[in-house]
Amino acid sequence: MIAIIDYDIGNLRSVQKALERVGATASITRDPTMLHATQGIVLPGVGAFGDGMANLRAQGWIEPLLNQVRGGKPLLGICLGMQLLFAESEEMGHHAGLGLLRGRVVRFPESGFKVPHIGWNQLHLKRVQGTAARLLDGIPEGAYAYFVHSYYAVAEDPDDILATTEYGVEFASVVGRGSVFGVQFHPEKSQEIGLRLLQNFVSITTSPGQ
Questions:
Q1: What would the pLDDT profile of 48-105 be if each residue is shown by its tens digit?
Q2: Fewest CB within 10 A of the end CB: N or C in the chain?
């Protein structure tokens, strides 16, 4: 079973339906103690970074989530959920994140491109190996995914960047380290490509060592 964390800031039901469509058993939960009984965790999210962290903290998610991830349980952050994986954000002030990946979240520059970045855009895949490669299995170079965001993550370690997208700047659109993954786009809105990525994540949760 995959747990979808409900911290009052996510697009939960559509993520659940997408996971179920690729054959997973997915449960939306507000109970942090449930995480130990799951095969994988999804952290979705829409909205502001500071609000997301405040809700996770107030509802008692942070330590249980970090403990499970440190134990090797696969985690997928979606949109804001991906940004929360990083150390900090400059969105409406300075906010500390989960710190699972090194880097910060910044706003798109004023470069003639409309902000927020909304719509379909391409994924440019990096050469990766191991579990990271499994997340992108079957996703072709240049595949289109659906984005809605005004901020993006700047990863300190280039090895954590699995795919990039260009929108005025080149930014990390898929990230990963160990069993921690994040996607800036919405897989539940990205049709076949999004479903394939979710299917790959489900496969990782059922056989993480392969």
A1: 999 999 999 999 999 999 999 999 999 999 999 999 999 999 998 999 999 999 999 9
A2: C
DSSP label of 116: S
Query: What positions carry a catalytic annotation?
Result: 79, 186, 188
Ordered DSSP codes for 5-73: E-SSSS-HHHHHHHHHHTT--EEEE--GGGGGG-SEEEE---S-HHHHHHHHHHTT-HHHHHHHHHTT-
Domain that holds residue 47: 2-206
CATH of the domain at 186: 3.40.50.880
Residue 209 burial (CB count, 10 A): 6
Q: Are strands 86-89 and 101-107 parallel, antiparallel or unpaired?
A: parallel
Nearest CA-CA partner of 95 in 61, 48, 44, 58:
48
Q: Is 104 exposed, middle or buried (0-12, 13-18, 19+ CB in 10 A)?
A: middle
